[in-house]
Amino acid sequence: MMTKRSFTFLSLFLMVMFLTGCNAKTQTPESVAAEFWQAVIDQDMEQAKSLASWDSVDYLKYIRSGQLKPERYELGEVLKGDRTATIETMLYSQPQGQASVKIPGRTVLLSTEHGWRVDLKETIGSTVKETVGTVFDQLNNLMQDGLKGLDKQLSESMKGFDKQLSDTMEEVGKALEKGTEELRKELEKSPFNDITPTPQQVPEGQRI
């Protein structure tokens, strides 16, 4: 005969199993991916670790070391299979409203006995692979914009230098012209203009 204590224990057990089952049903690849990236942004590595597959947990060190340190994320298209799921993911280097470098990638998840878990090896690998070209293009654009700004500054500086040089040469020319005119006037004054040539005396023996 079932005692009251046994009945209570059985009821609690069934309730826990029911809640666990409901939790497993509501857990989706999208929700796990969102929880994982939010944990990364919040630097809650224990939470991120609990959402990663056990055989890829070691790859969390690449995120922990700051080599992949997003400030926000966006999840896109989901490709879901029986055992795996892939979600298009865009990571951003800066918070909302600030100029950011976009880091494209994919969040890869595996279906395990504990529910969906992030495969960090595949996730980080796809992120690095897709990021190389994209980030290079973005950085190249930023550099080009910077060079254009520098070229504009240099151009404006050279224009100012050319004007300054032109003004200086004009002043030098005026000074030389003024000095030459003053010298000419001095030469026209006596005793320079009163000098008469002295006739040369021819020796007696050389007269013809």
From TrEMBL:
<feature type="compositionally biased region" description="Polar residues">
    <location>
        <begin position="193"/>
        <end position="208"/>
    </location>
</feature>
<feature type="compositionally biased region" description="Basic and acidic residues">
    <location>
        <begin position="174"/>
        <end position="191"/>
    </location>
</feature>
<keyword id="KW-0732">Signal</keyword>
<feature type="region of interest" description="Disordered">
    <location>
        <begin position="174"/>
        <end position="208"/>
    </location>
</feature>
<protein>
    <recommendedName>
        <fullName>DUF4878 domain-containing protein</fullName>
    </recommendedName>
</protein>
<feature type="signal peptide">
    <location>
        <begin position="1"/>
        <end position="24"/>
    </location>
</feature>
